[in-house]
Every structure is written in C-alpha cells, then in structure tokens.
Amino acid sequence: MEKIWLKSYPEGVPAEIDATQYRSVTHLLEDSFRKYADRNAYVCMDKFLTYGELDQLSQKMGAWLQSKGLQPGARIAIMLPNVLQYPVAMVAILRAGYTVVNVNPLYTPRELQHQLVDSGSEAIIVLENFATTVEQVLAQTQVKHVIVATMGDMLGLLKGAIVNLVVRKVKKMVPAFSLPGSVSFKRVIAEGSGMTLQPSKQGHDDIAFLQYTGGTTGVSKGAILLHRNLIANVLQNEAWLNMKPQAEQMVFVCALPLYHIYSLTVSAFMGARMGGLNLLVPNPRDIPGFVKELAKYKVTVFPAVNTLYNALLNNADFQKLDFSSYKVCNGGGMAVQQAVADRWLKLTGTPIIEGYGLSETSPVVTVNRVDIKEFTGTIGLPISSTEVAILDDDGNPLPLGSAGEIAIRGPQVMAGYWNRPDETAKSMTADGFFKTGDIGIMDERGYTKIVDRKKDMIIVSGFNVYPNEVEGVVAAHPGVLEVACIGVPDKNSGEAVKLFVVRKDPNLTAEQILDFCKHELTAYKKPKYIEFRDELPKTNVGKILRRQLRDEKAAA
C-alpha cells in the first residue's frame, strides 16, 4: 500500500525505526540504569527514587522471585496504584525473566479472579489497601506467592512526623484482610539483598506483558505484548518526541495509572529511555491534591485523557500555575473534545497533541506532529514503521475520505490474545493487519479522524450518528461540564439519541441544550432525550463508559 502519510512527516522523523538495537525491554531499562544512575527516575509524595536505586531494588526483588522456583515466562500480577513500589516490581519481574500481568487495583473480586485465572498468574504483588480482594479469590487461582506492600514501604524517614502521619492516616483506610503465608514488600527486598539475580535470556519474541483490555466491549482479554512490541513503540514515540527541544531532564506527569498501557509506555518506558523524571500521582481524582503536586515541578511532558484535562481546567488553583516549562501535552485513551482543547491552549499556551492507540498496539499507532500550534481534531499520522488502512465490512481497503474500520500493521502490534486463538483470528486480516473496531476516515495528507467505535454508532432512520460528534458539540456549551451520548430504542426511527449531561451551570435546562444543538447538528443527529446526572460512569483512566449507560437503559 502507498504510505501517503510519509509526505506529511516532519523533517528528521524517520519512516522506519530499528527495534533490534535492544534485545529486550530489560536491556533497554538496564541501559538507562547505567547512563542515568544518579538521576531521579520517580517521585511520589515527595520521595525520590533514582535510576541507581531502582536498579538495586529491582535486582533484589528479582532475585527473590527467582528463588521461588518460578519457570521462565511465569506470569506475575501487579495490583498497585501509582506508587514507588510499582516500577520496582515491574522492573524486577522483567529482569527475572517473567511476564507482567497488570491488574487494576479497584477490580471487584469477580474481575480479579477472571484475570488471575485467565493469565495463570503464580504470584501477585498487591497494596495492602486492596489485599482483601485478593483474599476473597486466592483459593480459586493458581497464585502461590503473595507480596503485600504498604504505602509507607519506601517513604523512610522523609519529613519524619509528617510522613508518618500520612501513613497512619492511610493505614486506617485499609480493610482488614487475612493472607496466611503472604510476605511483606520490605521483607522481600531484605531477603533478596543476600541473593544474586541471574540474568534472564529473554529476547524479542518472549512475552513481556499480558495487557488486559478494559472489557468494555466484552470479556476482558489479555493482549500478548512481546518485548519487541514495546521496544518498537518506545523508539517510535521517541522519534516523534525528539522533534521538540528537550529540557535537561524531561519531567513526565504520571497521573494515568501505570497498569494502563498508555501510561506504561508513554510515561514509564519513555521516561526511562530518555532519563526523565516521572511524577507519580496515586489518585488523580483528587484534583486539589494533584494540582499541589504539579506546582512543585517544571513539567515538560503531560499525557492525559480528555476528562482529566477538563477537570484541571475547572480548578481555580490550576489556572494559577506556571506553564512555561510545558513542551508536549498528549491526548489519548478517548476522543479529545475541541472545547477542552481550545481552553487548554488558551490557558497553558501548549496545544493538546492527540494520538491514538490500543492495548493491542503497545499502544501508540498515530500521533499529530509535536510542532502543531493548535488542536487539529484528528488523531494524526501513522508513526514510523506503521501502516494504517481503512477497511469496509468485508475487509477491503476503502478510498481516501471514506469511513471504515481502522486496521493497523506494524512492529508494535500484539502477537495475539492470550489463550484465545479464535479471538485473535477474528481480529487479524490475512495480511497481518489488526482490526481495531474503530471507525475512521483518512484524508489525502494521511491524517485520520476517528468517527467512533462500530458498536457505539447510533442508527436513526437509516442515518449513522456518531456519539463523538454529538458529544463534541454539546461539550462546547458553556453550561456543560461533561456529556455522554448513546442510542436508545425508538418506535419511529429505530433508535434515538440520548444525552447524559453533568452541568457546570446548575441552572442549565434541556431546552437550552436543544436550542444549542439546533445550530450545530442536522435534524437526525439532535438529541431526543436529555438526562442530567451528578456524575458519569468512567474507567479508572477517566474514559466515560457509554456501555454502562446503555446497559442501565436496557435494564430499566
């Protein structure tokens, strides 16, 4: 296929990247440990962790894991929020020759059991706050080793009584649990100090992560991400980020959870590759607390989702911050709304650079040029070594300007779904393209615009209505804080458009929204029903769950 997007590439960005320069993700990380040993790698609650300390601590934990007789490639789950123990555990697992299974700490017992059983995880590292969930399912899993971390494990004596007060406060919030045979995070490090980590023999085709999809389109499935997939995506991202002059040390805002692929690659691995500092934010929903952390650092790279950008924009203290160090603000995970992007640019002077990716693609597939001056409304161009095709329902390529399913081929595309060859076969074309389930349109310059997910599309009297478009219009109303759009059954038109709105202006009425839409949307796209809510259901990454809203309506 003709790679028309290459003509739109910025000068200096290569058409292809060479992923063979590292033999594994471990090799990439250890290279950074050597180069940046004295630099700070992570900071959380004012406690800094250097690359050298991460090197030493991960060796100790890795050696301890190896001492348990786990076979190479064994799956080990991490059930931690953004705390300093996460990078230590993640690097330790990889260095010991095992596979990381990222787990959302807020999972219900049912969700956790599914993921542990499906992955065949033999060990789990969990923060004590969530240990009761592990306790409820442990007997139904293959897990033999449980490591329990506490918030205070790595805080030491920093600021003395202040830190101890914080830890005591957190301790009171820990539900009671009983996990006989479990071992503390600190004990693992202590025992590992007397052991020697045996270098793993992992290579490009070994599994680094089982990255489970959010399950918003069905049963949660484990995307098999090989070492070469992640190495490729780090180098692909670096090729584009290098267009911007870099600070002496890049400071990455790591507010999105590291168990999510977006943050894992763009913050953790990109940060390591570039010798950057990651600001770990355990609870980004605490916007006032988050803003206080942002005020302490000269932020340079800020990956976020639309809802997080929006929440910050509506915080008075955030509006007072110094944004002069901001270089790159990435938008992903969900569609960035024009109204949010415009406000962000006006306040910070830095445009939101929207990209696109999935768990199955490690994740980044397309991105806008980092030298843009304003929000483009597209997901950008296919990154280096990546091909994007727009396919019809029969898998045939469509002409430019036509709406169809986005399909991707490149070194960052997963090896398949764990233990689900049928799902893998359904998601791949004969010539190696991964079918995303997202609908997009590519223009003559190679830029793609997301229209929506296949199943989110609403059909009104035979016309296709895409929720992203409707939500983008309604979000521009000054009285609207958040909005979600779904299709509901309608006896006349088959389906009708329904909005769920969180008000910014408490006096906002449905009539005002309808009048606003009248000027922006053709008749069949206009909402027929509007329901006001205090909040909308979201994933832990902040993505609005349309499916949950649809399920609520179906059950009503």
UniProtKB/TrEMBL annotation:
Pathway: Lipid metabolism; fatty acid beta-oxidation. It is found in: Membrane. Keywords: Ligase, Membrane. It is a peripheral membrane protein. The keyword Phosphoprotein does not apply. Residues 469-543 form the AMP-binding enzyme C-terminal domain. Its main location: membrane. InterPro entries: AMP-bd_C, AMP-bd_C_sf, AMP-binding_CS, AMP-dep_synth/lig_dom, ANL_N_sf, ATP-dep_AMP-bd_enzyme. Residues 30-418 form the AMP-dependent synthetase/ligase domain. GO terms for molecular function: ligase activity. Its EC number is 6.2.1.3. The keyword Ribosomal protein does not apply. SUPFAM superfamilies: Acetyl-CoA synthetase-like (SSF56801). It is an enzyme of class 6 (ligase). PANTHER family: LONG-CHAIN-FATTY-ACID--COA LIGASE (PTHR43767). This is Long-chain-fatty-acid--CoA ligase. It comes from Duganella aceris.
